[in-house]
Amino acid sequence: MNWLIAxxxxxxxxGIIGYVNxxxxxxxxxxxxxxxIGCGYIILQIVLAILGLWITVKIFSWLF
Length: 64
Prior knowledge:
By secondary structure, the protein is mainly α. Helices cover 94% and strands 0% of the residues. The chain contains two helices and no strands. The mean pLDDT is 89.
């Protein structure tokens, strides 16, 4: 649930920045979308890194 809150907060900040910079609704939606997708991508990279480390530990524990 904390990850979802982080994505929502990033999307809100991106939307605010997009609206302040242009003053149009379309750019606010684009900023919110970019912020949410960017934050989600970073969280996905963290999860994949942890998964890779976990698999490496499991393989080494099986080998040795």
